[in-house]
Design goal:
Helix content: 10-25%
Number of helices: 2
Distance between the termini: 17 Å
Structural class: mainly beta
Strand order of the largest sheet: 1-2-11-4-8
Order of helices and strands: EHEEHEEEEEEEE
Number of strands: 11
Length: 154
């Protein structure tokens, strides 16, 4: 999203391929969303659709925040019902690389099939230490499913 006017833009921060499911789009998505709701304590209706991402060798997602910074004119509308939680589910284990990195917290999580990473950020500030990115895949592919959860019904 362009910070100045809110229009959709292709960014260079993410070089993966992706697609999105609608909330409850099929029985598998519905099942996963119910599990996420039980784990996080947020109602299903607060969630955006699950996004599936595929990273090939060399592809990455440079460090970013998942919330919308309300200081920018283009993100103020989204920030009124901001994202407050991210669920990142690892669908496979790449042969090498592809870690999820939190540079401000000095944390690196290796992707492992079947594992999930949940992190929340109640306020849209750097103090949450949720600046994160997906390190480049060095060998193989990395597949993840991401679910963003909003403060209120989305």
């Amino acid at each position: 999203m362009d910070n100045s006017d809110g229009t959709s833009v292709v960014d260079t921060y993410r070089t993966s391929y992706g697609m999105c499911f609608k909330v409850g789009e099929n029985p598998i998505v519905d099942y996963v969303e119910k599990k996420i709701s039980a784990i996080t304590g947020y109602p299903i209706e607060n969630g955006e659709g699950i996004q599936i991402l595929r990273y090939r060798v060399g592809q990455e997602y440079r460090p970013h925040f998942d919330y919308f910074d309300p200081q920018y004119p283009g993100t103020q509308k989204e920030a009124k019902n901001n994202r407050v939680c991210t669920v990142l589910m690892y669908l496979n284990t790449p042969d090498s690389g592809g870690a999820t990195v939190f540079p401000d917290a000095n944390v690196e999580i290796a992707p492992k099939q079947g594992a999930a990473l949940v992190f929340s950020y109640d306020t849209p500030t750097k103090d949450t230490l949720t600046l994160h990115g997906g390190a480049p895949v060095l060998e193989g592919e990395k597949w993840v499913a991401t679910k963003w959860i909003r403060r209120n019904k989305y």
